[in-house]
Each structure stands twice: as C-alpha cells, then as structure tokens.
Amino acid sequence: xxxxxxxxxxxxxxxxxxxxxxxxxxxxxxxxxxxxxxxxxxxxxxxxxxxxxxxxxxxxxxxxxxxxxxxxxxxxxxxxxxxxxxxxxxxxxxxxxxxxxxxxxxxxxxxxxxxxxxxxxxxxxxxxxxxxxxxxxxxxxxxxxxxxxxxxxxxxxxxxxxxxxxxxxxxxxxxxxxxxxxxxxxxxxxxxxxxxxxxxxxxxxxxxxxxxxxxxxxxxxxxxxxxxxxxxxxxxxxxxxxxxxxxxxxxxxxxxxxxxxxxxxxxxxxxxxxxxxxxxxxxxxxxxxxxxxxxxxxxxxxxxxxxxxxxxxxxxxxxxxxxxxxxxxxxxxxxxxxxxxxxxxxxxxxxxxxxxxxxxxxxxxxxxxxxxxxxxxxxxxxxxxxxxxxxxxxxxxxxxxxxxxxxxxxxxxxxxxxxxxxxxxxxxxxxxxxxxxxxxxxxxxx
Length: 446
Hints:
The chain is α/β, with parallel strands linked by helices. It has helices at residues 7-12, 106-110, 127-139, 161-173, 188-200, 214-220, 258-275, 277-291, 295-315, 330-340, 347-364, 370-382, 395-402, 433-443, and strands at 30-33, 49-51, 58-61, 83-87, 94-99, 117-123, 146-152, 181-186, 206-211, 225-230, 233-240, 246-249, 408-409, 412-413, 415-418, 425-428. The chain has 14 helices and 16 strands. The strands form five sheets. The protein has a five-stranded mixed sheet with strand order 2-3-4-5-12, covered by helices on one side. A four-stranded parallel sheet has the order 7-6-8-9, with helices on both faces. The protein has a three-stranded antiparallel sheet with strand order 1-16-15. Strand 2 and strand 3 (58-61) form a beta hairpin.
C-alpha cells in the first residue's frame, strides 16, 4: 500500500529535532496546547454561569467555563431539568442540552425546527428504538410540522457517497425546501452523514443532532465536523457545518451495547490527557462507575467533555491550530480503521490504540515521563479498550494511510503529542522522525 514517493515517507527521512521546552508556533506547523483555562493566547479566565429556571435548565456559556467540579456528589441534577452547555460562535452559537428524558420534552426540539418540514436521518439499529419517540417530540402540539424519515444501514462501512445519496434521494422525492430541518438520530456515523447532507442539500439547510452513543454525545455531535469516508482515508470528504442544537438524552444509553460504551469512553479519556488533568484524575477514580453505567457519573463525564469540546470549538472552529489537539491518537487510529477495514474496529477502539502509540512516541521524544505512559495503559485496560493495533497492521500500511491524513501540510505530517505534565499537548510537525519510526516498528509488523 505504501508509496515510496509519498510526502509522509519523505518526511520520515528528515532529521528534525526539538528541545523538551515548549516551542512557539512557526510556519503554522506547531501549536502548543496549554491546560484548560491556562492558555495565554486567549482570555480563558472569564466565566459566565446563570440559572435560567427549571424550564430552561442550567446554562454554561463556554467561551470560558462553568465551575470545575470533581466530586461525583456534585454531578447530580434534578430529573428532567437539562444542563445546557453553549457553543459560543457568535450568531451561530447553539446549545447542547444534556439530561435524562429530554426526548419527552417536545419544546426542546421544536424551538429549533425551522419551517414546517423535517427529515429524520437514522439507521436500522436506532430506528426501532427511538424514531417514533423523536417523531412524537417533533409533532406533539405542533400539527403544522410534517416529518419524513430515511433509515440507513448501520455501520462505519456505510459512511460513503452511495449511502449519502439515499438521504438526498429522500429529501428530493419529498420536495423539501430550504426551510426544512434535517435531524440526525444515531451515533457518529449518522451525525456526520446527516450534517454533511444538510450542508450540501440546496446549499445548506438547518439540522439538529440527537446523538445516541457516548462517542457521539461527548465528541462527534459537537463542533460541526461533518463528512464521509473515502476508501483511501477516513473523513476526507466533508464540511464544517454547525447544527441548530444538540440534544443529549442520556436515557438512550440504556440500549447501548457495552462495546459501544467503552468505545465512547476513549474520547472522554482523550480530553483529560490533552487539556484537563483534573478530569483525567476524576476518570481514574470513577472508571468502574462509568463502565457500570452509573447515571450521575455518565452525566458528569458527558457534561465535562462537552464543555472541553465547546471551549475549543469556540476558539478555533475551522481547526487552524488549537482544535487539532482534539485529535490525539486519531492519526494512528484513522490509519487502523482504514487499513484494517472500516467497521472492523469501532472508532474509539482504534483511537485508544492510537493514543497509546502517540503516548509511546511522546515518551521516546523525552516529552513525558513513565508515570503518564503507565496511567494511560491502566485506564484504557480498565475501560476494556485495546492498547495496541491489530496484528494485521504493518509499518507500510500506517505510512501509506497517514500520508493522506488531513493534518499533512506542505508534505509534512503534523501530530498531536503529549508534552510536559499531564493535561498538556502540542500539535506539531517539529519532532525527531526517528521516534515516529521507532513507534511504528514497535507496534506493527515491518
């Protein structure tokens, strides 16, 4: 699969080293990510929290943060009252509603529907469980709204152009207009595809995210990244397109398989590693509660993850630097998904192995100490996530796929690596290529 002329393989031969001290950005290749609320490039010391009343929930406007709370006893919320985290993007800002039983509160969804026509995009797994409930939430007391639905096959391997066309077919056959609203009901694949369809149909229509997996609730539904896969690489075709709102009904996790639950926790763990050490420490103490689906622990993990994601997106919507740090382990992980075959491993499983590889490389560079390496292995093992890629992966397979990664710029592969104390990372192309080569050989076949 590898091409000896690829920009990735060429960059491997360049001997570039860097000191252990954080480097300033240069040529748009390096970006230092400081811990949460401590980035001197932005004013993150402002916080704005208001109590908006039981009917509106508790709102956190994340151009800064709500109060940091680590004690699990503080995570309990009144039943039916959503926590609201706002993604602050000026006139395109939108709320993330988080809570139990939110699909039984029609006003939450209906206030974000534009026009009188709605298309719900879901899949064969989620439709029997929640499609009727969502249709009821959209139409109860709102007889002027008509709802169509399109049910797609379930799985990462269907995140492609052929399947995307089924959404367009339904929208066109239903004669939907520019005032219609698309609703994504499902996990990350459905959210990405529905969002991309909404961005493209009639050059852009409104859409709403209703994520039903941990992975989608803590990560993929927030921030406006939409798209589909290509057989040469994951998420290479898509657009940045923000939803009207994200509605996270934690009750939908009751039907989530254990493997999907664990997969989503990989993204939760990521937030702690790259920018929120206090959150990572909380995860270490509560990983068993999360695996056991403790409702308060899950609600807190989702809220804290969304706060981290919303804060980053508010500062860097189009991934010019800071937002790229959210992809810790993803360059290695996407190579696993592409090389091994879409759907063979879940996204979070591939990201978990990818994070171990990124941590290993960070340690080889001398940027982190042994304790972080051990802590990452320990929490991933407790979460029942893989700590190494599948045996089928070879060095050439990694190089070939990583050569077309979205973070390649001017022929140089940039990576997100940990640097310094827990909760610090860099997005950089300024590293010793020998360390990358050593990591690839340590985790895959020659």
